[in-house]
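Hello forum,

I keep getting stuck at the same step: I have a sequence, I want structure tokens, and every attempt I make locally crashes halfway through. Rather than fight my setup again tonight, could one of you with a working pipeline run this one for me? It's a single chain of 375 residues.
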Amino acid sequence: MLHADRRNRFLAVFEGIRKELVAHMKSEKMPEDAIAWFNKNLTYNVPGGKLNRGVSVVDTVAIILNRPPTDDEYFKAALLGWCIELLQAFFLVSDDIMDGSISRRGQPCWYRVSNVKGLRKVHNIAINDSCMLEGAIYHILKNHFRRESYYVDLLELFQEVTYKTEMGQLVDQITAPEDNIDIVKYTLPKHTFIVRYKTAYYSFYLSVALAMRMCGVPDVYELNGKAVEPYKEADRILIPMGEFFQVQDDYLDYHGTEVQIGKIGTDIIDGKCSWCVCTALTHGTDTQKQILFQNYGKKGPEQAVRERAVRDMYNGEQGLNIPKRYEEYWKNTVAQINAMIELVPEPGAQDELRGDRLRRDVFRAFLSKISDRTA
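Reply #2:
Ran it on my machine without issues. Output:
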């Protein structure tokens, strides 16, 4: 199936979810203006991204089943995928407020929208809007999965992953507070902790774990006389893969254009604890570090000049050369992840037709989606 067809089929499920959520608002006797606001919140913030997290649930279900899913299986997998997209929207709306971001996915951040359905500007209402996006997840799960044997597993996955993500967000916020940036605290190990918790669990592990639960993959099974713990295998590979993904994001924030990445890169001006600055602090000379101390995260009338000073230092082919260091990191990391994938126990001929076993292609599919991305 062509990529556009796959996306459109997935989007069709969102339209059903949107109608279901709006109908629920009406059943609660919500005023018409509140219903219109919530509807705009959904359409503005949920379906506009690349949808990789959500579609990956569907893709993973098909790989585990080792056959195309039935219409009912597709629908359930897509519902779980859209629950991840709702979670993503919840995180992004709130994150943009905390960071004071300007644009997201090529349009103003939700809290900066000046007029919603002729009612008023969004501003701090976005805080409640983000909470409603999260709440919608549990409404959908209850409506469609309450009678499934794995319902509690789904609830626990969303709650645990959300909590881990918020832990990562906390460390990120207190490591790089906008009003008191101290890049002396920035290290590559600190960066690894932040991105694993803030990004990897919800962007990578969650999609696969949800698909595994839906397909009935048990916590432990025997393969070729050995015990396999598939959820630990998924964690072992997908968390480093999520770290790789975030390093790509950090690099693109510095090196990509707004057309490429759908937003204006602000990590340098905002003083973010990104892979680029942590790498610069790890490998830079005293002179280069001094340039960072004087210019990184310094807002004000001269912030454009200060940002350019950092970018020029990153770009210097005879100095830090962040593009070259990133290229080396990319090659080494892809090789390491591929090596980890090869260690996953594969179902043999006797288990080939089983649809409740973890397969290496699950991880290969994820890696192929992100390894060469430019956005």
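The longest helix spans residues 71-99. If your local run keeps crashing, start a new thread with the error log.
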